[in-house]
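ARCHIVE CARD
CATEGORY: sequence design from structure
SOURCE FIELD: tokenized fold
FIELD CONTENT:
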């Protein structure tokens, strides 16, 4: 059976990686190992996250369905104030990618960020993971491992864990150890590893910035950071991924191990999203279009590029199918398998993609070359194939097209639960540079 590694960066911009056109840093290439994954596999140019903010995307990743079906995912995002809540999290009874792979015979592990609700009502091992090493919150200081509320947030399974170290490196170390342990498993049980980094999410701390941990006013770090530190943070993550690739080679696991790499949403303060506009919290392209790379030497042609439209839940559905797992028919799954595309059997197929946000009453719908966008009371129609930067509003030129796409979005929205009035939008992520007219 095929091993699976699902790597998720946090707030990584569309063009932060070298393979997506990113510029070199002062120290050289930012992402040589991730770039190598692209060289040895397939990279997607029109791949999206299910949301422009972290925890809603993670609900979709786990459930393989539109996140709007689950109450906890309607927070933008889940905040540490939800500790103790019985509703703001991923319900343990919901079938997930790890739980269904576990039923198919996989050993499952999550290393890194959970951000899908707090114990005792929610947690990784209640939703299909055999082991967990990481954080429950949306972000922590890279050295003190304290969350936005100042609480220490580092866990092994259900036990709080104290460990000194830069958290990106600790996650990488644990991932390498995970593969070592699974490779030596006498029963040769296939593994599914979720490696969900917090990098390059704030606070802006590289491996050399331990002195900042006691100086910054909060982990939001609004007064700090720069592009140089940001690129180092990506590079530290990339180094860990390189070590993971090496250990797969060491045990002869490379050819039949699927590695998928992506980000949970678009970039933030210091990210490079070129040529896209907007960022985290925006349904403009910069908030939702993200890198998607898959390497599977046994089945995916090396050095290939795809223009297939897809989003997070599609990749989770794809990995479930690749691992021989089954959908639970009692629960809706909106994700569509990309196996025919990544194995070269099909070039691409039509894939309608829908989004909505309580923040600024945003709507978005991508179909083919076209995108319908609404921000506050303003509506837009863009030809993304010609205008990825979303600057030429075609709404007045093609009113019938605008109406048709609006109606399709409205029809889709009727199939989703409404956004409750008490759903929280985190103001720390609120932006003011989206299009107004």
């Amino acid at each position: 059976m095929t091993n699976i590694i699902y790597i998720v960066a946090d707030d990584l911009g569309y063009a932060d990686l070298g393979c997506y056109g990113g510029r070199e840093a002062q120290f050289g290439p930012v992402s040589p190992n991730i770039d190598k994954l692209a060289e040895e596999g397939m990279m997607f140019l029109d791949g999206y996250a299910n949301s422009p903010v972290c925890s809603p995307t993670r609900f979709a990743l786990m459930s393989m369905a539109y996140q709007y079906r689950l109450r906890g995912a309607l927070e933008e995002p889940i905040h540490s104030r939800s500790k103790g809540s019985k509703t703001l999290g991923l319900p343990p009874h919901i079938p997930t990618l790890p739980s269904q792979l576990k039923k198919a015979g996989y050993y499952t592990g999550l290393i890194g960020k959970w951000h899908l609700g707090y114990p005792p009502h929610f947690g990784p091992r209640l939703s299909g993971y055999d082991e967990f090493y990481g954080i429950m919150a949306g972000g922590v200081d890279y050295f003190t491992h304290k969350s936005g509320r100042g609480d220490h947030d580092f866990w092994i399974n259900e036990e709080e864990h104290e460990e000194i170290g830069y958290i990106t490196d600790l996650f990488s170390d644990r991932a390498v150890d995970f593969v070592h342990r699974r490779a030596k498993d006498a029963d040769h049980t296939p593994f599914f590893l979720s490696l969900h980094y917090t990098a390059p999410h704030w606070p802006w701390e590289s491996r050399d910035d331990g002195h900042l941990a006691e100086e910054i006013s909060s982990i939001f770090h609004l007064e700090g950071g720069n592009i140089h530190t940001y690129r180092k943070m990506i590079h530290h993550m990339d180094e860990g991924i390189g070590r993971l690739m090496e250990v797969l080679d060491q045990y002869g696991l490379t050819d039949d191990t699927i590695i998928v790499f992506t980000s949970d949403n678009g970039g933030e303060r210091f990210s490079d999203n070129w040529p896209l506009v907007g960022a985290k919290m925006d349904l403009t392209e910069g908030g939702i279009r993200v890198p998607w790379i898959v390497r599977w030497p046994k089945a995916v042609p090396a050095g290939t590029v795809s223009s297939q439209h897809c989003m997070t839940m599609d990749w989770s559905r794809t990995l479930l199918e690749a691992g021989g797992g089954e959908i639970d028919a009692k629960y809706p799954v909106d994700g569509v398998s990309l196996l025919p595309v990544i194995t070269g059997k099909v070039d691409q197929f039509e894939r309608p993609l829908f989004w909505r946000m309580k923040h600024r009453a945003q709507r978005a719908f991508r179909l083919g070359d076209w995108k319908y966008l609404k921000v506050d009371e303003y509506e837009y129609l863009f030809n993304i194939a010609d205008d990825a930067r979303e600057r030429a509003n075609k709404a007045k030129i093609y009113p019938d097209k605008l109406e048709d796409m609006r109606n399709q979005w409205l029809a889709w929205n009727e199939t989703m639960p409404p956004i409750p009035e008490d759903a929280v939008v985190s103001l720390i992520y609120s932006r003011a540079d989206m299009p107004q007219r």
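CARD ANNOTATION: The chain has nine helices and 14 strands. The longest strand covers residues 3-9.
SHELF: design records, drawer C
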